[in-house]
Write a structure and sequence with these properties.
49% of the residues lie in helices and 9% in strands. It is of the alpha/beta class. It has two domains: 157 residues, 2-enoyl-CoA Hydratase, Chain A, domain 1; 161 residues, no CATH class. Strand 1 and strand 2 form a beta hairpin.
């Protein structure tokens, strides 16, 4: 946790030359310190004084603060820097209906984080971490009236530090941070362990431990709150990057930018409408699946033979329901996730490449439609064993198969 701000200073002419000479001398002195197992107090004091004078560290861009859809939450994403708490106070004052703040932050200035925590506590806001909140950010998170962490989210802890020359980490006193954690009801043993982590390291506890230690009050699924995946960049470019992170297979469509732009635009619309993250990802997956199916249907027979081999390999590793979706719908997304290699991406890139038809006529139904995974696997194997398998594989992968259902009743 950085307890001091960093500023960009300016020098010119002879002042710049003097600064360079002074910094070279300081570096020579500090080089000896790096040879020591720990930076002793004399070197630490020198490093802090030099940094205070020369300001070698440039602050990052300001955190993004924005009102979420429907005006019920605030989205906070980025580094906690000078003036962040004042910006949040102004936004809260203008929107008294806010009840929750989404926190996504790598930390920053302790004093600013503590002030943000005071604002959260005064308004009795709930805090929610949709991805990560580490270092000083946790001081704000624990002040929430309800503290929610997404099931795969991360809270990170370490001892506070002051930034020395060129980013040297000088461990600072943790009394203020310890008091803040304890005042929020955090288990004292947990607070001691968290603040005992070296300043240049990071401890990310298991989510269950966070609830047990009263750091978080509840773990939540991605369908609980509005989506926060674009909080740091709610632009078309940010949406495009987000869908590629969620579905890496789509990167095979890099040459078909219009397709990616359409998927990204739909995802951005869902974010702006306040759709929960789980629902947004389900909708993205369904839309992408339909798009990939259309592309694959337009592939030539040689591409379909390659696709058939990939789909068959995935079906053999999948559970029965996934097997039917992969083989009966030609689901390359599911196949890629199961195989965890680039085989599906190669098929998609080939199907979407130049010289391929946009979409073929609907294929004729196969002569024999399999009703279970074993039957579908056998049908794929038989098709691949025959010459000219492309048409048969296209037919097999274009007819959705619903899992067989059983119904039983006890006799009266």
């Amino acid at each position: 946790m950085a307890s001091h701000g960093v500023r960009a200073g300016g020098f010119g002419g002879r002042g710049l030359a003097r600064m360079r000479r002074a910094m070279l001398a300081a570096c020579a002195v500090l080089a000896a310190a790096w040879a020591l197992p720990l930076l002793n107090s004399a070197y630490a004091a020198l490093s802090l004084r030099l940094e205070e004078h020369f300001h070698t560290q440039v602050p990052g861009p300001p955190a993004r603060l924005a009102l979420g859809p429907h005006g019920r939450d605030i989205r906070f994403a980025g580094e906690i820097g000078v003036g962040t708490a004042a910006r949040l106070a102004a936004l809260l004052a203008a929107h008294p209906e806010v009840t929750r703040i989404h926190l996504t932050s790598e930390g920053g200035l302790v004093e600013e984080a503590a002030a943000i925590g005071d604002l959260i506590a005064a308004r009795r806001l709930a805090t929610y971490v949709p991805d990560y909140c580490v270092s000083a950010c946790t001081l704000a998170f624990v002040r929430g009236a309800g503290r929610y962490l997404v099931t795969n989210g991360r809270l990170g802890f370490h001892a506070p530090y002051d930034p020395g020359l060129f980013g040297q980490v000088v461990q600072a006193d943790a009394a203020a941070e310890r008091a803040a954690y304890l005042a929020a009801g955090v288990d004292p043993a947990f607070a001691a362990q968290a603040l005992g982590i070296a300043s240049d390291s990071l401890w990310i506890p298991d989510p269950a431990r966070l609830v047990e230690a009263r750091v978080a009050t509840e773990l939540v699924d991605t369908d609980r709150f509005p989506d926060s995946t674009l909080d740091d960049d709610p632009s078309p470019a940010g949406a495009r990057a987000a869908i590629l992170r969620a579905l890496p297979l789509l990167d095979a469509l890099a040459e078909r930018g219009g397709i990616l732009d359409a998927l990204a635009a739909a995802y951005l619309d869902g974010y702006r409408a306040g759709l929960p993250e789980g629902a947004a990802l389900d909708r993205l997956r369904a839309r992408a699946g339909r798009t990939l199916a259309r592309i694959l249907r337009g592939a030539d027979d040689a591409t379909w033979v390659e696709a058939g081999r990939v789909l068959l390999r995935a079906m053999r590793r999948a559970d029965p329901d996934a097997c039917l979706a992969i083989g009966g719908e030609g689901d390359l997304l599911a196949a890629q996730e199961i195989l965890a290699d680039d085989a599906a991406a190669r098929v998609l890139a080939r199907a979407a490449g130049p010289g391929i038809r946009a979409e073929a006529d609907p294929p004729a139904p196969p002569a024999r439609i399999a009703r279970d995974c074993a039957g579908l696997i056998a049908a794929y194997g038989e098709a691949l064993a025959r010459p000219g398998a492309g048409a048969a594989l296209r037919a097999l992968a274009s007819h959705r198969i619903r899992p067989a259902r059983e119904a039983t009743a006890l006799p009266r």
